[in-house]
Amino acid sequence: MAIPSPYSGVSTLAFVARASAFTFGLVYGSMKLSYLQAKAKYNKKAEAKGHH
């Protein structure tokens, strides 16, 4: 039996690490996006209030 190289792509730990990092990135990105959209909406509302 051959010893697998460190980067053979069969490591369960590496797969789990990549999958969790990807999932974390998706969750973080969606939270950041919704935060920025809410902030932009608030700023737009405040700006419209200031002009009238």
From TrEMBL:
Positions of transmembrane segments: 12-31
GO CC: one term?
proton-transporting ATP synthase complex
Q: Which Pfam families match?
A: ATP-synt_E
Name the family: Belongs to the ATPase e subunit family.
Record InterPro entries: ATP_synth_F0_esu_mt
Q: Name one GO molecular function term.
A: proton transmembrane transporter activity
Q: Which UniProt keywords apply?
A: ATP synthesis, CF(0), Hydrogen ion transport, Ion transport, Membrane, Mitochondrion, Mitochondrion inner membrane, Transmembrane, Transmembrane helix, Transport
The protein's organism comes out as Cocos nucifera
Superkingdom of the organism of origin = Eukaryota
Q: Where in the cell is it found?
A: Mitochondrion inner membrane
Q: What is its main location?
A: mitochondrion
> A GO term (biological process) for this protein?
proton motive force-driven ATP synthesis
Q: What is this protein called?
A: F-type H -transporting ATPase subunit e
